[in-house]
Write a sequence for this structure.
């Protein structure tokens, strides 16, 4: 298994999920239940992103640290990014919890999505650059979902 390709595929799916959420936020709300789709898609995206980072922190990064001690600073930065993203995701989820007025809720959620999206994209690009060579050569026999999350 080419772990670099797998990571890029997971990042691609998370990028597409974020776009789906943004597209839903931009749509005119249905008169019956204006925020339901947005809530469902946002919660799904938040869960997927969190599980991806949790898997990296629990399985991938410790394995890379063991095999490549020279990556300690890179992995520390990536873990810090994960913490920052988790904080932003929690803020987004709090905005979702308060989503009652359709227009105000969408505006607040979009602002939070923009923040999560900007940090997520920066993080993904750095991670792919910093770990690309190591992941291309990595011979790790573990289920993909354990290493990169269930995406």
């Amino acid at each position: 298994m080419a772990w670099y390709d797998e990571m890029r595929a997971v990042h691609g799916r998370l990028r597409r999920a974020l776009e789906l959420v943004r597209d839903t936020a931009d749509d005119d709300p249905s008169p019956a239940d204006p925020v339901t789709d947005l809530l469902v898609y946002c919660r799904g995206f938040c869960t997927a992103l969190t599980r991806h980072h949790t898997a990296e922190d629990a399985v991938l990064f410790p394995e890379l640290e063991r095999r490549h001690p020279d990556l300690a600073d890179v992995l520390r930065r990536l873990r810090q990014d994960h913490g920052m993203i988790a904080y932003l995701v929690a803020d987004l989820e709090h905005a979702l919890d308060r989503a009652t007025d359709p227009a105000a809720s969408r505006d607040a959620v979009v602002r939070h999505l923009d923040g999560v999206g900007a940090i997520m994209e920066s993080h993904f690009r750095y991670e792919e650059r910093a770990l690309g060579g190591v992941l291309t050569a990595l011979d790790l026999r573990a289920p993909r979902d354990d290493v990169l999350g269930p995406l």
